[in-house]
Amino acid sequence: MDKDILSQEEIDLLLKGDSNLEGNLDENFEDDGVITDIERDAIGEIGNISMGTAATTLSTLLNRKVTITTPKVEVTTAGELSNEYPIPFVAVDVKYKEGFEGSNILIIHVDDVKIITDIMMGKEEIDTSRELTEMDLSAISEVMNQMMGSSATSLSEIFSKKIDIEPPKSYEITFSEGRKKLDVLKTSDPIIKVSFRMVVKDLIDSEIMQLIPLEFGQGMVENLMGTPQREVIDSIDRREETKLVEEISSKKMDMATSNGIKQKTARIDKMSENKDEEHVIIKKPEFETFDGSDDVSYNESIDLIGDIPVELTVELGKAIKKISEILEYGPGTVIELDKLVGEPLEIYANGKFIAKGEVVVIDDNFGVRITDIQNRYGH
């Protein structure tokens, strides 16, 4: 009997062995020297610009102030992530279909996804104790589609080429499960982790992560700089490295202000030309004089514009509903309008209110009898 019972030491060894098997050879990974300081700073700046634009989009969707802090760039592995984050999270897989080849993953807390979904559904009370549903995953996929779409637009300006993404896919998953399902996590190669702190006023204050394959991240930097980084490091000193980092940081500002700089330069050149002139002649402007004339009116026929079509619209009534209410509609649903029975309907010509009327039936067709014309004085 005793031989069939495992000791605590044997159990610990089995658990340890399973962990090592899952982490493979990458769980004790050291990131020193995997990427250069230039690559680290460049990736951080790219992430800062793209996520800044994404934060603006999220703020518009939620109608709340959203702040995303300056990113922190690290190099890790799927094995280390499995050990560091054992609990489930929501992974949003974003694949590029134009401009770049590859994909990256955004990691979001499950409760944050529930909060974002409840806000978009117009719920007055946020419930994070409920189970995560397909509705939550669908909502966060659409949110990320909007956010990363605007981010791709910003990257298009930085890299001077069109960049576009496929519709993102969301999963509730752990890192251990993700190593079998998500391309970015299937490898034991190093992964670039870009961490941001996301704050949504009074609701969310947590960390989101962007996981980028090492080759993909280095490729972006080389694309931006125009020269493979390993060759640059061999031929420049530290001062030149710092200069390149400053050029990357100022690239966004240069694009936004290039027109203003050109205008200022033109004005400076103009001032320099004027400075060389010895004499400047100043005189009052001369204007042509017109004799007074009687007002002339033309009573031409309106036939010239008589054939121009005008769209007449009759408004039966209005109703304002929340998205959550509209989603519950189906065949047979009755929508209550703001008009009372027998109350005059409003008639518009090309969107301008011109008259009031009442509904009539003419040979089985609806019609409107005009009861009151709105004149130009509003009576």
SSE diagram, text form:
Elements (H helix, E strand, L loop, with lengths): L7 H16 L13 H26 L3 E3 L3 E5 L1 H7 L4 E10 L3 E7 L1 H11 L13 H26 L4 E2 L3 E5 L1 H7 L1 H4 L4 E10 L3 E10 H12 L3 H7 L2 H38 L36 E4 L7 H4 L18 E5 L2 E11 L2 E9 L6
Antiparallel strand pairs: 1-7, 2-7, 3-4, 3-5, 3-6, 4-8, 7-8, 9-10, 10-11, 11-12
GO molecular function, one term: cytoskeletal motor activity
Subcellular location: Cell membrane
Keywords: Cell membrane, Cell projection, Chemotaxis, Cilium, Flagellar rotation, Flagellum, Membrane
Mind explaining what this structure looks like?
With 379 residues, the chain is of the alpha+beta class. It folds into 2 domains: 17-256, Chemotaxis protein chec (3-Layer(aba) Sandwich), CATH 3.40.1550; 307-373, SpoA-like (Surface presentation of antigens (SPOA), Roll), CATH 2.30.330. Helix content is 42%, strand content 21%. The chain is built from 11 helices and 12 strands. The chain has helices at 8-23, 37-62, 78-84, 110-120, 134-159, 175-181, 183-186, 214-225, 229-235, 238-275, 323-326; strands at 66-68, 72-76, 89-98, 102-108, 164-165, 169-173, 191-200, 204-213, 312-315, 345-349, 352-362, 365-373. Strands 1, 2, 3, 4, 5, 6, 7 and 8 form an 8-stranded antiparallel β-sheet that branches. Strands 9-10-11-12 form a 4-stranded antiparallel β-sheet, with no helix packed on it. A hairpin with a 2-residue loop joins strand 10 (345-349) and strand 11. Helix 2 crosses helix 5 and helix 2 (37-62) crosses helix 10. The longest helix is centred in the C-terminal third of the chain and has 38 residues, at 238-275. The radius of gyration is 33 Å and the shape is flat. The termini are far apart.
